[in-house]
DNA sequence: TTTCATGTATAGACTGT
DNA sequence: AACAGTCTATACATGAA
């Protein structure tokens, strides 16, 4: 009976695998041995990857709202005389949506607003951050409107002034900006002290609780490629054997950015409080979109690879872990996953290793790689090899040990966090997948479109169950 | 496999200095 | 007239269905 109801909703759903599925640590790659993935688990991984796709309707709905907001904001800044420097803003879409690795819903967008400095920049590494954070200043005094963001020395660009002014203008913009159909409205979220973003949320009118979309607007200072990247990143990412030396040169010859994010920690000195963080978002996006060892990767059905799917699954697992162990894994974020992913791609370069069919094996490999980084406490920033994203105190020792164990548990117990909730009781009607929001309440923020389809599915499931019951009764009576 | 919508890169037109 | 910056049309890539 249960399976009938399930099948009615999702005929492609594989059977729930027997748990635990043995993964042992015998291999030198932590947590990975090819032969040990059971066919059931492999099927589940494929199935889960399918489920992470964004729906076209959702994308269309969200893209229209976000693009209109973005274009209107840009127009507002261009016309604004209050802060003439912001008239120079240019848009650079970044983050997982535009990298095509956003999962579950098209509900989070990252938009960088980039600004060219009036002259060459000087930057000084802030100590103890291994080249991630910088004091940024102009080489010479200027009459450019950027003046209003400078400190008393007339040269140093103040990150706090920059982001505060951005807030001011975005708030001013939002006061008059209306969503076309009036059913929702954008609000500016509260300022967060360590965040470089002005975060906007789209709320339903009359239901202030439910956030339908969120957009991070991140201002960024552009460093001309003529100046080159800071010393800590000068060597460029380790992609020689993967993307090739020529591709690497092309990457290094691009601009990089500073975003107004101060370094973590309390009791910062006055210089650190005005610190900027280096950003390679646009390069990351480029690498992820042209990710092949050969040019032909993903060009045809025959050369399709599973790299992006692996990253999506890892992001899903990380979200799940953070949901399940909120406090313990506070320090963990999706960027750790992305970094481990990039390292894995650069060492496991050959396209054939990432063939579409190999998804389960590749994902387990990636998971093992992240576990390995956690176990060794070493996860170098992909562009700044000396910056360890698992270094303390940013990533506390305790959290690292917890993460190592959590990842090991996932690997050795058949990925319970990627699985549906425990086997359903006999009369359960809904398919396990549809009940997923119960397990991870915030992972899936339902859009209006989704609500409709959920109701439809539920209705169909109930109808099928009733029908099957009737048939069973009828047969019983006939006997 | 195909069809479609969205996102991106590019060239050439346009505009103001 | 020359130039840089901006806008626009177009083709192409990507991924969902």
TrEMBL record:
Residues making up the signal peptide according to the UniProt record: none
Coiled coil: none
One Pfam family cited in the UniProt record for this chain: Mab-21_C
Domain Mab-21-like nucleotidyltransferase: 97-289
Domain Mab-21-like HhH/H2TH-like: start-end pairs: 306-403
Alphabetic keyword roster: Membrane, Transmembrane, Transmembrane helix
Transmembrane segments: 456-474
Family: Belongs to the mab-21 family.
PANTHER family: CELL FATE DETERMINING PROTEIN MAB21-RELATED, CYCLIC GMP-AMP SYNTHASE
Protein name, entry field: Cyclic GMP-AMP synthase
Organism this protein belongs to: Umbra pygmaea (Eastern mudminnow)
């Amino acid at each position: 009976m249960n399976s009938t109801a399930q099948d009615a909703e999702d005929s492609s759903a594989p059977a729930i695998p027997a748990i635990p599925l043995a993964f042992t640590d015998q291999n030198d790659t932590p947590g990975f041995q090819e032969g040990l993935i059971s066919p059931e688990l492999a099927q589940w991984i494929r199935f889960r990857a399918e489920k992470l796709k964004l729906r076209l309707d959702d994308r269309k709905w969200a893209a229209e709202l976000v693009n209109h907001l973005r274009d209107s904001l840009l127009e507002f800044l261009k016309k604004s005389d209050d802060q003439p420097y912001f008239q120079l803003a240019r848009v650079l879409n970044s983050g997982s949506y535009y990298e095509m690795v956003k999962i579950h819903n098209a509900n989070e967008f990252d938009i960088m607003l980039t600004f060219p400095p009036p002259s060459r920049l000087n930057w000084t590494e802030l100590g103890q951050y291994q080249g991630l954070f910088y004091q940024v200043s102009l080489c010479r005094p200027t009459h450019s409107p950027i003046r209003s963001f400078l400190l008393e020395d007339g040269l140093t660009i103040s990150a706090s002034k920059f982001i505060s002014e951005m807030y001011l203008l975005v708030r001013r913009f939002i006061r008059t900006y209306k969503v076309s159909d009036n059913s929702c409205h954008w609000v500016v979220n509260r300022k967060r002290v360590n965040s470089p973003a002005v975060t906007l949320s789209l709320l339903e009118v009359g239901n202030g609780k439910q956030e339908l979309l969120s957009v991070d607007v991140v201002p960024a200072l552009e460093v001309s490629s003529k100046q080159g990247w800071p010393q800590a990143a000068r060597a460029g990412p380790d992609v020689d054997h993967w993307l090739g030396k020529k591709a690497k040169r092309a990457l290094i010859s691009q601009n990089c950015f500073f975003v107004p994010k101060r370094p973590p920690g309390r009791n910062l000195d006055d210089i650190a409080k005005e610190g900027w963080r280096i950003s390679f978002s646009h390069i990351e996006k480029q690498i992820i979109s042209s990710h092949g060892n050969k040019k032909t990767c993903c060009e045809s059905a025959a050369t399709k690879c599973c790299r992006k799917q692996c990253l999506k699954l890892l992001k899903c697992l990380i979200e799940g872990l953070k949901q399940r162990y909120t406090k313990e894994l506070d320090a963990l974020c999706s960027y750790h996953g992305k970094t481990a992913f990039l390292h894995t791609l650069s060492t496991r370069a050959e396209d054939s290793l990432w063939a579409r069919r190999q998804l389960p094996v590749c994902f387990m490999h990636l998971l093992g790689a992240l576990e390995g980084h956690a176990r060794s406490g070493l996860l170098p920033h992909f562009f700044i090899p000396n910056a360890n994203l698992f270094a303390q105190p940013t990533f506390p020792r305790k959290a690292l040990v917890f993460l190592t164990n959590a990842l090991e548990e996932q690997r050795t117990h058949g990925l319970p966090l990627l699985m549906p909730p425990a086997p359903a009781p006999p009369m359960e009607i809904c398919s396990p997948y549809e009940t997923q929001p119960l397990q991870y309440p915030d992972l899936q923020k339902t859009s209006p479109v989704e609500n409709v389809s959920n109701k439809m599915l539920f209705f169909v499931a109930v109808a099928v169950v009733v029908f099957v019951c009737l048939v069973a009764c009828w047969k019983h009576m006939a006997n």
